[in-house]
Amino acid sequence: MSGDHQTLTLLLFSVVVAATLAITSWAGRRRQGSPEEFYAGGRLFSPMENGFAIAGDYMSAASFLGISGLIALYGYDGMLYSIGFLVAWLVVLMLVAELVRNCGRYTLADVVAARLRERPVRIALGASSVTVSVLYLVAQMVGAGALVALLLGGSMGDAAHTWTVLGVGALMVTYVCLGGMRATTWIQIVKAVLLMAGALTLTVLVLLRYGGDLGALLNGAAERSGHGADFLAPGLKYGGDWTSRVDFVSLGLALVLGTAGLPHILARFYTVPTARAARRSVVWSVGLIGSFYLMTIVLGTGAAALVGTDAVRAASPAGNTAVPLLSLELGGGAGTRGGAALAAVAAAVAFATILAVVAGITLAASAAVAHDLYASLRVRRRPAAPQGRREEVGVARVAAAVVGAVAVGLSLLAQELNVAFLVGLAFAVAASANLPALLYALFWRRFTTRGAVWAVWGGLLPAVALVVLSPVVSGAPHALFPGVDFAVFPLENPALVSVPLGFCAGWLGTVCSRERADESRYAEVEVRSLTGAGAV
Amino acid sequence: MPIEDPWCHVDGAAPAPGAAPNPAPEPARRNGQPVASASPAHAAVYLTVQRSAAFQQMRRRYRRFVLPATAAFLVWYLAYVTVATSAPALMARPLAGAFNVGMAAGLAQFATTFLLTWAYARHARLRRDRLALELRWETQDMTRTAARREAVS
């Protein structure tokens, strides 16, 4: 990549950083320091705004660059992977969004604790929410470091990587601490608009190249991929031995059930005034996310057809540069001004994507620490006093900085490691710990505190333990510790085992409890969740 | 609205003979301390609303749509993923030119997701929203009245 290109890319990155900081200072200007402001952005976003923000929160750089890259390298299997991310929204839409909006205030634990004993439930769900957030955050930040180094041309080596991780960490903590949910939301909206516009432009350019003939595009991709017709059928990536096939089913289960348990996604429903608005924002986001993944199919096959699978793999073995290379080609080819400009724009969009996603996750993690863990673990005092709630926001700001520092530290440690499994693991923990507790609390009359605590720990601990015992940690060439071998669990994603375990533990804990479920408190949760009575 | 007056049975310690089957609800406690809003009268409001015909009808409408739909799309997605990984040859069967069974199934996943989203939103808008809003105001009125009576007594 040329020097001109690098200068332009750096310039656009600076524009992105300046714009997000401007949004933060604008959003932080009129802050009153109330939890309502900090965690929920004042709850007055419109469904369309929140729909864009949800899409912005959800579509990471891994989606924009990673999935298009997977499609460019493996064809059909890349698309197979992306579908789980979309279908998951039906779970969110039908079972979770409106009910969570009606019952909760700021976090996932609010909903579950509403009818149970607060302390143990908040501690368990706070711990699992922080775990999910940190796993997801480390995956994003390691990816960000590698990506920015790659997008800038890779000439700066490890130092660029380290500085990128530090810079991204500092920026995300700044957005969250100074701007809270309002700044985070606007950053996500701007990012979603940029991402959709960028993807749409590239898609139109690819289709124009082929005169709108999708058949010609598919045939061209199959031909230049070197796989022929196999490129358009499943099996190139996930079709190895039976273990890897079962592994993919496990990953699919994690994706489809995990989205509804991601703390940063659930927090988004508190930014709109009513359950109806929450529903309409999910409808917006399904439209946006669905059309985005449809466009990645065109982008991925376009990269295979126009750049060639071998060239994509040569630039980055995971395919992450497929979209920048495709833009270079569409803008006029290497060495042209148009090509360099378009590639720089694609890189800047990817950078904006990274910043928005990590900010959303950091905010959710800080809410889980301050609102759930700190509020439950500190010496008990009267909780409802206004200065106590102000104090909680202060704790949340500190928590954001601490979570940011932990994530930066872990990302720097993991810099050289293959952390691709972390996204799947975050979804698996969310599906096996958060989702059972949430669904039982909303739908099961007899559910008890012990059931909730067992569901969370019974999903969280097996999920993490199984990954530690899996080939991603030891015993395989790409493992974190390739030198040792204690991999007794064959699958890389634990969801196929840990999700049923989480649900079973919740059931078992409930039937074993000595206390009976409180009828009237379940009545309150049910009435509130379906009607919105008493919702904040 | 067919919600009967909730105040006829909850005040006395022992229900009158022939009273409605409302059990005297225990005061809810959080962290061992009673929560300001969780008085017996407050709890009784929610039990009354939960047992009202209007609420039962709305819950039935919600569950009748959501439970079968969730089962259907989960089975359809897991079947798709299982077939794609275990029988790639079936997915590779061509339909028209480069377009094969796998492509059709994948695009059908997109289509069913969009369709179910639209159907759910429409169902909620036409069949549930009005009922929910009426129940919400009704319930909030009842909890306010309950709080006022408690403050007086």
Q: How many domains, in number, for the residues of chain B?
A: 1
Query: How much strand content do the residues of chain B show?
Result: 5-15%
Q: Structural class per helix/strand content of chain A?
A: mainly alpha
User: Low-confidence stretches of chain A at least 5 residues in length (pLDDT < 50)?
Assistant: none
Strand fraction of chain A: under 5%
CATH class label of chain A:
Mainly Alpha
The CATH architecture name of chain A reads Orthogonal Bundle
Count helical runs of chain B: 4
Strand order of the largest sheet of chain B: 1-2
Oligomer: heterodimer
Q: Shape of chain A from CA axes? A: globular
User: What is the residue-mean pLDDT of chain B, rounded to a whole number?
Assistant: 79
The H/E string of chain B reads EEHHHEEH
Radius of gyration of chain A: 23 Å
- Major sheet details of chain B: 2 strands, antiparallel
Helix fraction of chain A, binned, reads over 70%
Distance between the termini of chain A: 53 Å
The overall average pLDDT of chain A, rounded, is 90
The pair of chains with the biggest contact is: A-B, 63 and 60 residues
GO biological process, one term (chain A): monoatomic ion transport
Keywords (chain A): Cell membrane, Ion transport, Membrane, Sodium, Symport, Transmembrane, Transmembrane helix, Transport
GO cellular component, one term (chain A): plasma membrane
InterPro entries (chain A): Na/Glc_symporter_sf, Na/solute_symporter, Na/solute_symporter_CS, Sodium:Solute_Symporter
Describe the structure.
Chain B: The chain crosses the membrane at residues 65-83, 95-121. Chain B: This is DUF485 domain-containing protein. Chain B: Residues 12-35 are annotated as: Disordered. The complex is a heterodimer of chains A (536) and B (153). Helix content of chain A is 76%, strand content 0%. Chain A has one domain: Orthogonal Bundle (Hydantoin permease). The mean pLDDT of chain A is 90. Chain A has 536 residues and is an all-alpha fold. Chain A contains 20 helices and no strands. In chain A, helix 10 (242-258) packs across helix 19 (495-512). With 153 residues, chain B is mainly alpha-helical. Chain B has one domain (6-152). Chain B contains four helices and four strands, in the order ββαααββα. In chain B, the strands form two sheets. Chain B has a two-stranded antiparallel sheet with strand order 1-2. A two-stranded antiparallel sheet of chain B has the order 3-4. In chain B, a hairpin with a 2-residue loop joins strand 3 and strand 4. In chain B, helix 1 (40-51) packs across helix 4 (101-152). Mean pLDDT of chain B is 79; it is low at 1-37. Chains A and B meet through helix 5, helix 9, helix 10, helix 12 and helix 20 of A and helix 1, helix 2, strand 4 and helix 4 of B.
